Amino acid sequence: xxxxxxxxxxxxxxxxxxxVQTVSDFVDLQDIKDEVLIFPSAPSLDAFVLPSNVSxxxxxxxxxxxxxxxxxxxxxxxxxxxxxMLLIGHSERRHILKExxxxxxxxxxxxxxxxxxxxxxxxxxxxxxxxxxxxxIDYNLAQLENIDLGYEHLIIAYEPVWAIGTGVxxxxxxxxxxxxxxxxxxxxxxxxxxxxxxxxxxEILSIPNVDGVLVGTxxxxxxxxxxxxxxxxEMK
Length: 236
Ligand code: PEP
Prior knowledge:
The chain is α/β, with parallel strands linked by helices and 236 residues long. It has helices spanning 13-29, 75-80, 91-95, 101-113, 126-129, 133-142, 172-183, 198-205, 222-234; strands spanning 2-6, 35-39, 54-56, 85-88, 117-122, 154-158, 190-193, 212-215.
């Protein structure tokens, strides 16, 4: 099982350090075998000492080693901390930061070439979900159109936009049906994301074709995140 935490624009450098240390100790002490992924904000990235199944990734990076791209970070900055994992295509970057599919593809190809583990996010807005399952699938597959789905370090996160940060997760039936159909095209691990929390994690992880979760809001409190890791362990 893969349990991933997206900090978004939360936690400071100091509190990130504490969080990563607490989670690492927990993973060691509880003998956790699941994969734990943590995406802190860019200024809080560091060369953390981690158990082998805990990884730190960037929430965003520009498809360059270095250069003149004000406000962006490149692979050289990530190399300094040994970061080899990246979140690409998160709905907040697509919708708030207006990232195009073309830029997302460039990022994917650049960081794939460097061997990064990539958590690639897809997901439909509410107006598409309201049109029915075929539109939902078409929309999500279109976001994967020029993405090499055979890449060995690829993880896909299905995150319906209307379920992100709203407190309202997709229903068990919606997740089950969507993942089942997506699975026909996607062999990579398939995560669900969208208002996952301690209270619904067990049910979500028990759905066929759900290989893990990407969690925002409910993961920022380290005790809650530890509870989620513990739930994933119990489910084996
Ligand atoms: C996310 O940011 O990927 C996410 C799923 O957020 P939340 O858990 O807050 O819905």
